[in-house]
Amino acid sequence: MTKLPKDFLWGGALAANQFEGGYDQDGKGLSVIDVMTSGAHGKAREITQDIDPQKYYPNHIGIDFYNRYKEDIALFNEMGLKCLRTSIAWSRIFPNGDEIEPNEAGLQFYDHVFDELIKYGIEPVITLSHFEMPLHLAREYGGFRNRKVADFFAHFAETVFKRYKDKVKYWMTFNEINNQMDTDNPIFLWTNSGVSIDENENSEEVLYQVAHNELIASAKAVKIGKEINPNFEIGLMISHVAIYPYSCNPEDMMEFVKANRLRFFFPDVQVRGYYPGYANKMFEQKGYHIGWQEGDEKILKEGTVDYIGFSYYMSTVVKHDVESYKGENVTNGGLNHSVDNPFIQQSDWGWAIDPTGLRYTLNTLYDRYQIPLFIVENGFGAVDEFNEHGEINDTYRIDYLKAHIDAAIKAADEDGVDLMGYTPWGIIDIISFTTGEMKKRYGLIYVDRDNNGHGTLERKKKASFDWYRNVIETNGESLNSY
């Protein structure tokens, strides 16, 4: 007997800005990521004021899905995908973001993509905003600092909800809405919300002001969507890095509790429809004004989500007196008290490899919220090399995915978690978000393109392609054959 429901959504995940390309085709406007250069070899990307012809902007071409979507969707069908999680590029529909009328050519492109997916029985799972805010809204309005942008987003959402009401059932509002709370890397706040912080500002207060406007935007979109099609399933999307306390020292446990509040703040509001007590107390103690307006309580209450979509790549450990720790810190998921975990391995990029952390995450989220969960990102970034037979035998990626799928199945089958689906990140090689690299590959399909934009863009199946097809065919019963 299968351990997962028959309608389990096996798929793959992508973002329009990282794979579509066509940045200036058919009336598309510039987005916040179109002015981000490559920061390859582990370096953060630069945000430029305008497009500098002397610099390389990898997202402008991506992997050219815009002109190759039929070829790629045929490959997704051959792999057996039941769904494809991707996004609609906001600036393809409203080039500046503040127009009344949409760009018809942009709408038609997604009609073609969704029709092609549906032809093969692949369910579109669509994120409304995945780091694709129109640049005009960031430059002229200050992004989500400005309450007007919440209304522009609601108008965008209404437009695409109406257009695709009979083609798309599953939606999410904002991708990894919580990642912008990491002030150590300004590209998150810029890409999430089109916001930059000045040196003389209280960054934490600004972050919560921006977050409030985005939470209002999300709630408005959910309500609008449900009015257009009551059968829509509309979720949130967060990044979840599992957190462990360093020890049973009560101070480490309290550090763990405090650290988790950044994990739970957004879903607490989006699932429950009101601000949690710990947030209200913090605003009161620090004298923060988040831009609350009359009627916001009603908006949040009426715009709660149906499910939780989340990304999971790694876990981290927090220690209350981190300054006393002598080890080497791993990638910390935005936490200042993180230390390394001696019980797990790391990837070449310093990301902790922890499949049990996924089972822990699924249990934690389901116990807290009791609504369906959807793993919409999980994957292994690595340098892929061809062997002497011209093949990519990526057993390391298979091992990673196998272990995480096994953990997810245990959470559903043994722990009772209501799990909707699993869509590994970068199902086909795409531009890395944080660095703009092609070298860091997640795909089960290889794309011939390098960090400098050279290559034929030819697609080629990796060993993981056939392995994942077998996983889907057996609904997760067979994880070992490769």
From TrEMBL:
Its EC number is 3.2.1.86. One of its GO terms (molecular function) is 6-phospho-beta-glucosidase activity. SUPFAM superfamilies: (Trans)glycosidases. InterPro entries: GH (IPR017853), GH_1_N_CS (IPR033132), Glyco_hydro_1 (IPR001360), Glyco_hydro_1_AS (IPR018120). Keywords: Glycosidase, Hydrolase. The active site is at 377 (nucleophile). One of its GO terms (cellular component) is cytosol. Transmembrane segments: none annotated. It holds the Pfam family Glyco_hydro_1. This is 6-phospho-beta-glucosidase. It comes from Staphylococcus edaphicus.
